[in-house]
Amino acid sequence: MKWLLPRSISIALLTLCCQFPGSGHSFCRADDDAAPAKDDAPADAPPAQQAPQPMSREVFNQLLRQKEYAQVLTRLEAMIDDQANSNETFSMSMMLSATLGRETSDEAKQVLHAIVDRSRAKESWDTSTAVGVAYAVDGLVNRDESLTTDDKLAMLDWLKTKLPADEPRLAMVDRTMLFRRIALLNSAGRQDQAGQELDKIVDQARAKLDPNNGPSINAFVDAVSAYQSLAGQMFPDRVAVVVDEAMKLTAQALERENADLPIYTAYFKLRLAKASSASRNDPVAASAIIDDLDAKLKTADESLDEAGARAIAVYGRSISSLRSRIEAALKIEKMIGTEAAEIDAQHFVAQDAVKMADLRGKVVLIDFWAVWCGPCIMTFPHLIDWQEKYSDRGLVILGATRFYNYKWDDEAGRAVRGEDVSNEDELVMLEKFRELHKLQHGFFITPENSDYQKTFGVTGIPHAVLIDKSGKIALVRIGSGEANARDIEAKIKELLDAES
């Protein structure tokens, strides 16, 4: 199966993330619109014959809302020439290119090309220029259908040669560009090349590894973590082998009498990540890892000096938070085989009103989601695929969401957050959002004070619940990703083949 990445997911969705309250599951920020400008902010562009004037944040935001992108670029470039590496120009460069990357207009693409073309004349880049160009390249890779896959790969290769080295603020940009490159190779059917490029991350770290040196082990674990985040969805079996290698390495290192702080750090980082991943689908295994880490906290307190013990003790908070998630996952596991709750719908969208009784004899997939949720959007290609393949055999997909105060912006062609949006306007937005993403299934909106989400243990989205033909819960999966998609599709096939 090809790894599917919707065009609508930008760097902004990959980097501007937080956690669903009480869960630790990723979702995208809803407040991605520019802050409103003050009413008295000067918005007029300076006369053409004058040098471009600097912009305040208020003016910058107002010009973005007015889609005066060319003017913003000209004035921002003048600011960068004057204060190249300031946090303000860095932030503005990122926001301009990210905003353009979400646009579909020809003008937006022209400005993105202008950002890239003007940067080619510069021998070296400051950080603000680098982040603006990186986001511009990302926008073009996602949106410009006139570019071939090879054009896009060449652009990413060129970008990598130009990004300033050892700049912490660009670490995520650098990783995201690699993410884009791997996705392009994979979607073009060049999985072998994608795998080879990913393997370099671990191979280079392995070549420098000294199994008797704590900092070297820690650096190797960092490389394994990067490999896992980039390759986990595409090559889960290869990732499992590399993670197992790192697990054995850190376990052996910790057994030595002289185990130092970097070794403890590597041990905890690796296992916390493994427990976090397992907490969703194998909470029993995750619980065993957490118990081990609890014991190692006591060992660290006895073995390390005072400063080292304090540094490791910080992981105690992560362990406590993860234990809460594991307990929630264990509760979800207990739902399997129980009767699914009745649908609690205030409104239906592109779907006739239904009750669970109407769905007996069908396999039902309830997809808990929201329009602002990037990982939810990443599951859409799978939902479309399953609808096309299995609806004739008895699969019913229903999206479950809430009113989130979003409306449709016709000019921008997307959903935007509003104030006091009426239910009618939000329903219109959902219809258009569904059409934009070519979804084939319908939605229902739960009432404001509904316990429907809580009944199914929803703490993060996307949250998928599969219900068998007799109305009992058969599978629950939380989050996007190929591993979850494989589990869900395999279960769909199994349930459809089962006797009613």
Give a quick precis of the structure.
By secondary structure, the protein is α+β, with helices and mostly antiparallel strands. The chain contains 20 helices and ten strands. It is globular.
Name a few traits of the molecule:
500 residues, alpha+beta, Serine Threonine Protein Phosphatase 5, Tetratricopeptide repeat, 3 domains, six-stranded mixed beta sheet, 20 helices, 57% helix, globular
Terminal residue distance: 29 Å
Shape: globular
CATH architecture of the largest domain: Alpha Horseshoe
How many helices?
20
Helicity range: 55-70%
Q: What's the count of strands?
A: 10
Instruction: Give the integer mean of the pLDDT values.
Output: 85
Strand numbers in spatial order across the main sheet: 3-8-5-4-9-10
**Mind telling me the CATH class of the largest domain?**
Mainly Alpha
**How is the main sheet built?**
6 strands, mixed
Report the uncertain regions.
1-49
What structural class results from the helix and strand content? alpha+beta
Fold and architecture overview:
This protein has 20 helices and ten strands. It has three domains: 33-189, Serine Threonine Protein Phosphatase 5, Tetratricopeptide repeat (Alpha Horseshoe), CATH 1.25.40; 210-335; 347-497, 3-Layer(aba) Sandwich (Glutaredoxin). Helices cover 57% and strands 9% of the residues. 37% of the residues are buried. The radius of gyration is 25 Å and the shape is globular. Residues 1-49 have low confidence and may be disordered. Helix 8 runs antiparallel to helix 9 (191-207), helix 13 packs antiparallel against helix 14 (306-313) and helix 13 packs antiparallel against helix 15. The chain is of the alpha+beta class and 500 residues long. A hairpin with a 6-residue loop joins strand 1 and strand 2 (26-28).
